[in-house]
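Page 42, continued from yesterday. The earlier attempt failed because a stray header line got pasted into the input along with the sequence. Redoing it now with the clean sequence only.
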Amino acid sequence: MILTFLFFVGIAVATVGLYITFVLRNEVQISYQQTMFQQVSRVASVLEDADSNANRLEKILTMSQMGDIQIDVAVGDSVVINSSGMASAINHPLFNTAEMQFSSGTDVNHVEREVSGQHVYFSALQRPGSGMIVRVRQPSPLLFRMINRLQFTMVAAMIMALLLAVFGSWIAAQRVTEPLQTIRNSARSISEGRLDEEITVDSRASEFQDLAKSLNLMSDTFKEKIDELQRMAHLQNEFIGNVSHEVRNPIFAVGGYLEALASSTLS
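This time it went through. Structure tokens are written below.
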């Protein structure tokens, strides 16, 4: 019974843990990627409206100051613009990053990696019409950090819940088996002939109390039947003794007469 209960509790705990670890985190990550895509699309639209690279640099500085983001823009194969200024696109390290490697038919990439000990998310969007590639860099959001803490908290809570379930199951099993063991020992004593022993159960459960009363009633009934059988056996033995006495006297008398008639001295 305990193993069955623990089996189902373990399945429930494992299901919740797997959901938090994989499903919930994946859903949040997909939602965040969609948010990053919307953000980089807006940034690209703003930069496409600029009429010069100097104007684009000004807009990049303004947007970087307004939010905790870093913007890099590659304008064709000529120049790379970011908050540090403008630089030549030839052999620029920006193009060596994973998010800047677009496969055929793909206009957006999302990459996450560690940068200087900090978890950072990158979203890169290429605009074939304007020839620009816009990359937005943003540190790990507070929501992700909260989910990571929630995962550890939930794992610890599930372990505690499993331990409490084991402890509670052990207590419940003890409260169930102890009255049953008492009933078993009393029933064994009754089967060995000690019919005067009464079954007592130290439990508030009405089922065990009813079972003990039923067994006590059965024991009393057996005792009455045994007493009745013993009384009937005593009467039977007494009747047989009386009948034997009454039959034995005439037989002895007839035997005496026969011996007398057979005697040679009889005249």
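Notes: The chain has two domains: 2-153, 195-267.
Reminder to self: strip header lines before submitting.
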